[in-house]
Amino acid sequence: MVSPSRLALVDELARRDRLLEVGVGDRPGVARSLAERGRDVVAVDVAVGEHTWAAADETEDPTVAGSLRVVEADVLALAAADDETEAETDPIDGEFDAVYACNLPAELQRPTLALAERLDAACLFTTLGFEEPTVSVRRRSLSEATVYVARSDSTGPESAGVDRGR
């Protein structure tokens, strides 16, 4: 089950076809919901949990319109990868419309943004709630959550939120 705040995030992210979730851990709700809406999602974490592996297996059912692929990888290494030298070993091969994260801790915000830049994708995330973003963002207020847009795309109007440069 996906909480109302995560469902608002799913609605926002579903505007895109190919998504990469950073730090999925054992919380596959957003990624699975996106796959069920026909989106192709790659979920990445250094330690993927059993629920996430199970959700990826369940999305292989022909009744699921999209896909969920799980990859154990470190966002720090992915962000630093060189496109030419890492092309053969890159675990997240492919093109992405957006890189996103739920409850992204401050120390992973810069590498997540760097990964989005490397992939030429939008970058959206929510924070742990008590932390402010450590990268320049625009706030997008959704019905149940605030999404921080660190790198935008052309899928909709941008929030008139405050930019925070650090």
Task: Please give a handful of descriptors for the protein shown.
166 residues, seven-stranded mixed beta sheet, 7 strands, disordered C terminus
Describe the structure.
The protein is an alpha/beta fold and 166 residues long. 28% of the residues lie in helices and 21% in strands. It is built from 5 helices and 7 strands. Strands 3-2-1-4-5-7-6 form a 7-stranded mixed sheet, with helices on both faces. Helix 1 packs across helix 2. The C terminus is likely disordered.
Q: How would you briefly describe this protein structure?
A:
This protein is an alpha/beta fold and 166 residues long.
In DSSP terms (H or I, runs of 4 or more residues), the helix count works out at 5
Q: Write the H/E string, N to C.
A: HEHEHEHEHEEE
Largest sheet: 7 strands, mixed
User: What is the averaged pLDDT score?
Assistant: 87
In percent, how helical is the residue content?
25-40%
Question: Which class do the helix and strand fractions yield?
Answer: alpha/beta
Ranges where pLDDT stays below 50 over 5 or more residues in a row are: 156-166
DSSP summary, beta strand count: 7
**Could you state the oligomeric state of the chains shown?**
single chain
Strand order of the largest sheet: 3-2-1-4-5-7-6
Radius of gyration over all CA atoms, rounded: 15 Å
The end-to-end distance, rounded to whole angstroms, is 36 Å
